[in-house]
Each structure stands twice: as structure tokens, then as C-alpha cells.
Amino acid sequence: MVKKMNELRLTRAAIFFAIAMVVMLAGCGFHLRGALQIQTILSPIAVTGLPQGSELVIELRRRIIAQGLQVTEDTAAAHTVITLGDEQSDRVVTSVGPDGRAREYRAQYAVSYGVTRDNDIRLETQKVVLSRDFAFVPGQVLAAGNEEASLQKEMQHEAAYTILRALEPLGHSVAPSKTP
Description:
It is a single chain. Helix content is 36%, strand content 31%. The protein is flat. The model is unreliable at 174-180 (pLDDT under 50). By secondary structure, the protein is α/β, with parallel strands linked by helices. It contains three helices and five strands, in the order αβαββββα. Strands 2-1-3-4-5 form a five-stranded mixed β-sheet. It has a single domain (35-171), classed as Double Stranded RNA Binding Domain. It has helices spanning 2-27, 55-66, 141-167; strands at residues 45-48, 71-72, 80-96, 102-117, 120-135.
């Protein structure tokens, strides 16, 4: 009998705690980010500054098309131009073993970007900087190289998503009227 009462109290306490957490999260303004939604008014979009075959450009173009928007290579025909630059990939030793050899690395990726819309600067040049840590096992050199390449590609995909996230609010602002 006492055991059932204790279980009932624990159940009530757990329910109360869950409700309190939901109320606190809602009260602080927390909400999930939701799906990426770029306004069609930004279309067509051109991506410049890096070679068209680079992983970041390919991923940006793929994600723009997935949003149902047009991509163009002609910057004169584009309403929105994403200008990429200063792309850097690097690897830094973060941990050294007792034998003096590197045990852990940090793969780093950085790229700068800016956005113009109808030849008006809408987003000043900004920089996306990402990093990932990975272990290095001396007997598995090939696996470590593959892991680093995979991490670099993942960071490029995340950078593309971050850049497109920055485009979301631009579609809500009205383009300035141009007087000849």
C-alpha cells in the first residue's frame, strides 16, 4: 500500500515537472527553428565568387533549387546574388600523445559571403566559421584521412545551410525603388 502511494506521488511529480518545463520553455520564447523558407521574390539567385564546381557552390545551388527557386549563372539576370569568398580549410593539432605524436585534430572550415538584391547590398560580408574534432589513430591513416574529408564536406553543407538561413528575412523586405 505504501509502495503504491509512493509510485503515485512519483508519477504526479513527474507529470507536474513535465508541465512546468513546457510552460517555462513556452514562456521564454523558445520554439523550434522549422523548415527553411526562402521567398520566391528573391529568385532567380546567382552564386558567385568561387568556382561553380566547388562543393559549397554545388550544395548552395542544390538547396536553392530544392526550395523551388531558380538558379542562374548570369549575375545580370539575377534578382539576388550570393558572393562567396575567402574559403579556407585547415587542420589543427588539439592533443598530443605521450610519444609526441598528434592524437586529435580539429578540422576547420571558414567562408565569407555577402548578398545583394537588385544591385543593392542587403547583407554585408559575413563569415561562417565551423570546426569539428576528430581522433587520429596512427595505424589507421587512411581512415583518418577519410574522416577528415567527410567532416570537411559536412561543414561545407552546414555552411550552405547557414548562408541560406541568412536569406530568409531578405525576402520579407521590400526592394528599394529605382528611379532612372
